[in-house]
Design a protein that fits this description.
The protein has about 260 residues and is of the alpha/beta class. It has helices at about 20-30, 45-50, 65-70, 80-90, 125-135, 145, 165-180, 240; strands at about 10-15, 35-40, 55-60, 75-80, 100-105, 110-115, 135-140, 160-165, 185, 210-215, 225-230, 245-250. The chain has a 7-stranded mixed β-sheet, with helices on one face. A 5-stranded mixed β-sheet has the order 8-12-11-9-10. Helix 1 runs parallel beside helix 2.
Length: about 260
């Protein structure tokens, strides 16, 4: 089975450091198009058998491979204990805009745990892909996914929308959503069919704290903890100050005539 990955360049590294983990690693590589297996040199025969033509074996410490993995791949699947992965990657972390999405799998293939860059890095989506392929349980700990509510930094992503907001504005808007504060959702452009496919799919209704509007001018910003504005327009005069610090602007692709 081959799948569409949640990364623009479809680059995924699969890391396994034990003989028993390599069998599972082979299944992962077969599932993810373009994925490459990384394993210690002492397991070369097993690695090449598990992922023919897609195995790289290294000498030395696994931790020494991390800089190249971070630089060369959008996602990393580690068949390594969660605690070990934390120690391996800790010195190399930058921020959620740059770090790859990392998913940890246990050797039994029972749990897929996104442990870094769940949203922007695509780890939550990758965990969902792996769970479906392996029959594993995805362990999602991000608040929006645990509660099946709106993920502010993923709204419209599957439709090609981009967003304009500072880090602090994303944090404030996300907190407003998950803490059930009133949030204005103003949609003036783009497909309205986004909720069912949002963040791996949502089956329930739109959260009650999200109030929908068709025009920005219809809202009173002071009554909302955050404003999510989907539009092709520039902010009307004076609205930059009125929404300062609590707005996220989404830009759907412009239709070509």
């Amino acid at each position: 089975m081959s799948v569409q990955l949640p990364f623009p360049n479809q680059r995924v590294a699969v890391v396994s450091i034990t003989r028993h983990g390599l069998a599972l690693a082979g299944r992962v590589v077969a599932t993810l198009p373009g994925a490459r297996l990384f394993a210690p040199e002492k397991f070369r025969a097993e690695a090449e058998a598990a992922a023919p033509g897609a195995a790289t074996c290294y000498t030395g410490k696994t931790g020494d491979q991390v800089p190249a993995l971070f630089a060369g791949f959008d996602g990393i699947v580690a068949i390594v204990s969660l605690g070990a992965v934390v120690r391996l990657i800790a010195p190399h972390l930058k921020d959620k805009e740059q770090d790859p999405g990392i998913v940890v799998l246990d050797e039994g293939g029972r749990y897929a745990i996104p442990m870094l860059s769940g949203h922007l890095g695509g780890a939550n989506a990758l965990a969902g892909v792996l769970a479906a392929a392996l029959g594993a349980q995805p362990v999602l700990t991000t608040a929006s996914d645990a509660r099946a509510t709106l993920a502010v930094d993923l709204l419209g992503r599957e439709l090609g929308w981009t967003f304009d907001a500072s880090h602090d504005e994303i944090v404030r808007a996300s907190a407003a959503v998950v803490n059930d504060e009133p949030v204005a959702l103003v949609q003036e452009a783009g497909s309205h069919d986004w909720w069912a496919r949002h963040a791996n799919g949502r089956s329930g209704p739109l959260p009650a704290n999200l109030k929908r509007f068709e025009r920005l001018e219809d809202i009173d910003p002071q009554t909302f903890g955050a404003v999510l504005w989907i539009s092709h327009r520039e902010l009307p005069e004076g609205w930059g100050e009125r929404l300062a610090g609590r707005r996220v602007i989404y830009r759907p692709p412009q239709e070509v005539a």
